[in-house]
Amino acid sequence: MQRLFLLLLFLLPSFCFAQQITISEELSIRNDQQYFLLGKLKDRFLVFRDKHNEYLVQAYDMNMRLSWEKEIELEGKRIDLLDLVSFDDHFYLFYLYRKKGNYFLKMNRYNAGATLVDSTTVWHYKDNPYSPKPQLLFSEDDKKVLVYELIRQTDYKVFAYDIENKARLWDMKFEPAKFNAYRDLYQWVINNKGEAFFAVGLDNRKARKESHRYEIYHCRAGMDKPIIAKVEMQGKLTYDIHFSYDNKNHRLLAAGLYSEKNRGKTNGAFFFLLPDMAHDNSQVSFLSFDLEFMSQIMETKNPNIKGLDNVSIKELILRQDGGVLLVAELAKQYERRMAATNRGYIGRDGSRYIVDYYNDDIFVVSIHPNGQLHWKSILHKKQFSQDDNAVFSSFYLMKTPSTLRFLFNDDIKRENTVSEYVMNGYGEFDRNSVMSTQSQNIQLRFQDAVQFGPADIIVPSERRHRLRLVKIEF
User: Fold this and answer.
1) Of 187, 185, 88, residue with least CA distance to 143
2) Helix, strand, or coil here: 291?
3) What is the DSSP letter of 319?
4) Residues 6+ apart with CB under 8 A from 404
5) Comparing C-alpha atoms, which of 169, 48, 157 is closest to residue 103?
6) Is the dihedral of CA 87, 89, 95, 99 positive or negative?
7) b/e burial code for range 296-312 (CB count within 10 A of at least 16 → b)
8) What pTM does this model have?
9) How many helices (H) and strands (E) does the chain have?
10) What DSSP designation does 295 have?
11) What is the pLDDT of residues 169-199, one digit of tens each?
C-alpha cells in the first residue's frame, strides 16, 4: 500500500549512521498461501499467515523472538481474503464470503492481542449472479478504504468506507466515456476525507497524440455522478504516469514520463496538479532529459540516444511545499528458450524457458510546485536474477523527515552485501554498506519490507520455503 513522504527542504545533510540487525528464528511457510506483515502493535510485531483456509497471527517481541501465536476464525464458506490494514494498535481484516447464495464483504477488527473486537458487514452483494471481484485501496492514513469493481470492462461500481467509524461514505456506479481497460492507462486514488479520483488516459497512441488527454472523475458524498476534469497532454504521449493526492495541500497531482514520438522510449518527465476539480485549469510542465543524464543512465557515450527504455515509475514522494519527487527504476526481463534443462517454465509451444531479470539504476527527479526542475540524481546499482520473479531485486524506500534511504541487495545470490543510498533534500547522497548476509541463511525481500518507526524496518527473508524476519535499526 502507498505511503507518502513529506520532504523537508533546506536541511543540512548528515550521513553518519550505524545500524543494529536482529534476525528471528526460521519457520516453515511451505503450506502458506500468503502472509502479511502487520507492523508494530503496542510492543509486538504481528504477522498474519494465510494457510489455505487456516488463519494464524504470530507475535514477535522487539528482539525478534516469537512470543505467541493465535488462530483466527472467519465466518462463512468460500472465503476470499482481500486485504489487511493496521493503525492505532488494531488491525482490520477484509474478506469476502458466501452465505445462502449471497456474497458479503466483511470487516473484522482485532486488538493487539489478535482478539476479535467487532465484525461489520461492509457490503451485501444482493442477487449477484457471479462471484464479486472487488479491489481495495486505502487512504494515506489507512482510515478510509475505496472498494471498486469493473463490470463488463465498461462500468465501475465503487464506494468509500470509513474504517474507524464503520460507516459507508458514499457509493456510485458510472461508465467512463471511451474507456478501454485493456488499452488505456488508468488509476484510482482516495484521500483522507474519503473522496476518490479515477484518472484515465485517452488516445495515448502515435496516430492520435494531438488529442491525448487525461480525464479525471471526482467522486464524493452528496454526488449522483462524478465531476469530470480534463488535462491536455499538448501533443506528447505518456510512457508512464502515477497519480497521488496531497492531503496537506488538498489537491490531486500527477507526475510521469513522456514520449515525443515512440512510446517505447521516454524523453523526459512531466508534472501537473489539479487544485480545483470544477475547472479544467491544469497546465502540464514537461522537463526533457538532457544527453548527459541519459548517457549516465545508459552508460554510453553515444551522442544519438533517442530516449530511455525499460523504465518504470516506482513511487511519487510528496514534498511539503506541494512539489514532488518522481522515483523510477530501470528494469527489464528476457525469456530464453533452453534445449535441454530441467530449469525454467514450459511455454505454450512446449519449449522450456528461462527468464532473466535485470533491475538496474534508480533515478530521482525533484519538481517544484510550479513545474520547474529542482534537481535530478542517479543511483547506480546492478541486479541480475533468474526464474524468481525478481522478488529479491529492486529496493525499499525508507522515509524520514530529512532523508530517503534506498535499501537493496547488491547481488541476487544466497550470500551478498546489503547496501543503501542515503539522500537529502538537495539530491545529495552517500552510499553505505548496511550488512552482510554471509552465513546468515537469509535472502531478503526488500520490496515487501515494512517501516514501523522513524528509523526501523522489518524485512522478510525467504529461503527454501522458510521465513525469517530481519529487523534493521538505524
Assistant:
1) 88
2) helix
3) B
4) 5, 317, 364, 397, 398, 421, 422, 423
5) 157
6) negative
7) ebbeeeeeebebbeebe
8) 0.91
9) 1, 35
10) H
11) 999 999 999 999 999 999 999 999 999 999 9
Element (H, E) at 211: none
Buried-state track 401-421, b at ≥16 Cβ within 10 A, e below 16: eebbbbbbbbebeeebebbbb
**The three cell numbers locating residue 439:** 552465513
**CB contact at 8 A, 278 and 252:** no
Q: What is the CA radius of gyration of the chain?
A: 23
Residue labelled with grid coordinates 529496493:
395
CA distance 236 to 185: 15
Torsion of CA 13, 17, 22, 23, to 10 degrees: 70
Q: Look-up: residue for cell 467509524?
A: 165
| DSSP H helices in 337-427 | none
Contact 324, 9 (CB under 8 A): no
Residues 378-399: pLDDT tens digits? Answer: 999 999 999 999 999 999 999 9
Pair 228, 176: CB distance under 8 Å: no
